[in-house]
Amino acid sequence: MSALALAAAVKSGERSAAAVVEEHLDRIAERDGEIGAFNLVLAAEARADAARIDSALARGEPVGPLAGVPVALKDNLCTRGVPTTCSSRMLEGWHPPYDATVVQRLRAAGAVVVGKTNLDEFAMGSSTENSAFGPTRNPHDTSRVPGGSSGGSAAAVAARFAPLALGSDTGGSIRQPAALCGVVGLKPTYGRVSRYGLVAFASSLDQIGPIAATVADAAACYEAISGHDPLDSTSIDSPRELVTASLERGVDGLRVGVLAELCAGSTRVEGAAGSAVEGVAADVIARVDTAAAALEAAGASISVVSAPSAVLGLSAYYLIAPAEASSNLARYDGVRYGLRVDAANAAEMNVNTRTAGFGAEVKRRIMLGTYALSAGYYDAFYGKALRVRTLMRREFAAAYADVDVLLGPTTPTTAFELGAKTADPLLMYLNDVCTIPANLTGHPAVSVPFGSGDDGLPVGVQLMGPALSEPILLRAAAVLEQAAPSGGGAR
């Protein structure tokens, strides 16, 4: 059942929250040993929360729109008194003294947290193979990756361990694993969802969002967690948006632009772009073309749009994000909290702690970011990356003057085999090439499962829009969901 159907059944008395939670805990116990979606299953806490919801219903008290719905949290979201590790030895065993705002809001909506999900360490990765606690596997084929860095959350939804999960998206870390696992992933507008309580990777890029089996569930989760938060200085000060009521409005009259730079090989964009990102597979492009045809059949107008700076996004991102990470991760020094490896003096203790606590990919990005910010290289690297980001914002703003949303692939390929790219960081980074533009611009984007590739694994197509266009994006996503070819969706 979908999250909304479960909530309706609980509120009507057809099912108890306790029974719903127990069913999902049984499923986790049965299969998560094979998949590795969770770092921690909160069985006792989930049962207690479910019992409270059932008691409140018995007393006739309001219980929220997501009453009794099991939800999985990416393990970089602070949960009071519960280990929050970021899948790193650096934070192993750390118990935050507070809840992230999104966690508070989900609980206020009646959702029941069933566990903390695995991720690439400190959210740095595209396959969930960089976790200190072992990889997560794709439920559709356990020899394949689930994507990353929110791979545990996407795998949990795809395996039906929970109908809803939260992830964080810095360069595509919600949408990319959602696409590879055949589920829906929404990256909201930067500032639309509070980052308070999210362990920072790159603060100007990070955004929390839902992963769900259906577009309607993702919309309901977005409604529950979005809205202004005075605890987050980057939070947009505007009322919470209600988007579920408009999902059935369709796309008649909507202007959809196929983004040429992400769609090399498409018959629609042939010759339209001077250059395009490399490596997008033909079977993925074929699904984008089919998605464009489906939107057109539903009443949307389709055109080709070009934003030349999109091809520079990957290079700019892998300077900006590591630079911010090198600053954010400086706090893990063995003094204030987290891992401490003692030594003869403070300097050696700091080195020993960070050497033991961080994995190879985190160290790589800290060094890259520190180098980009260093004297003599700042203007040559970081400064140029910021200029590319500004150019991208201008070009995408110009594109949205002509169209309402943009369409393209979410990932270059379907899920690849575990270990296939771990020895080549650059090859791994290329998995983010289609999702990074929305992070650099701060715009919302959603990935919708849309059939399968030639290998039978899920393909996701991506819709992007200007700031605060989530209602329109989700309407278009709902149309694509209904038109999606069979196969490749959530199990």
Count of helical stretches: 15
The largest beta-sheet arranges its strands as 1-3-2-4-6-5-10-11-9-7-8
What string gives the helices and strands in order?
A: HHEHEHEHEHEEHEHEHHHHEHHEEH
> What is the global morphology?
globular
Q: Span between N and C termini?
A: 11 Å
What's the CATH superfamily of the domain at 3-237, by name?
Amidase signature (AS) domain
Which stretches of 5+ consecutive residues score pLDDT under 50? none
User: Average pLDDT across residues?
Assistant: 96
Structural class: alpha/beta
* The top level CATH class name of the domain at 3-237: Alpha Beta
- Taken as a percent bin, the fraction of beta residues is 5-15%
Percentage of residues assigned to helices = 25-40%
Description:
The protein has 491 residues and is α/β, with parallel strands linked by helices. It has a domain at 3-237: Alpha-Beta Complex (Amidase signature (AS) enzymes), CATH 3.90.1300.10. Helices cover 37% and strands 12% of the residues. The chain has an 11-stranded mixed sheet, with helices on both faces. A hairpin with a 5-residue loop joins strand 10 (445-452) and strand 11. It starts with a helix and ends in an 8-residue tail after the last helix. 59% of the residues are buried.
Q: What would you say about this model in short?
A:
The chain is α/β, with parallel strands linked by helices and 491 residues long.
Secondary structure topology:
Blueprint: H1 3-12, H2 17-35, E1 38-41, H3 43-58, E2 70-74, H4 101-108, E3 112-117, H5 151-158, E4 164-168, H6 175-181, E5 184-187, E6 208-212, H7 215-225, E7 255-259, H8 282-297, E8 301-305, H9 313-328, H10 346-357, H11 360-373, H12 378-399, E9 405-409, H13 425-429, H14 436-441, E10 445-452, E11 458-464, H15 470-483
Parallel strand pairs: 2-3, 2-4, 7-8, 7-9
Antiparallel strand pairs: 1-3, 4-6, 5-6, 5-10, 9-11, 10-11
Helix pairs in contact: 2-3, 9-11, 9-12
